[in-house]
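== Protein entry: sequence and backbone fold ==
=== Local backbone shapes as whole numbers ===
==== Amino acids and backbone structure tokens ====
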Amino acid sequence: MDLEEFRASVVDDAPAEGLSLPLQTLWWDAKGDWARAHACVQADESKNGARVHAYLHRVEGDLSNARHWYNRAGEPPADGPLTDEWTQLVRRFL
């Protein structure tokens, strides 16, 4: 699956089978279901999960919580457009 196929799949009822938890989280976020995305990422205790968790809290507007998750991921906080961050994350995990 590439980025465009991933984006196009958001019209489906559920993410494609075999996607990692970070990608499932980003899929639910793209679908507009922040709560489901957050529930999904909470099941992932990896650094990749922490990185996506940071993004989700940035989407939510909770920058303090986002900084916590960026720190857990070992990465500096993002400050560019959220759409760019989402795209970069999807590309990283595909």
About this structure: The mean pLDDT is 97. The CA atoms of residues 21 and 43 lie 8 Å apart. The first helix runs from residue 3 to 8. The two ends are 7 Å apart (CA to CA).
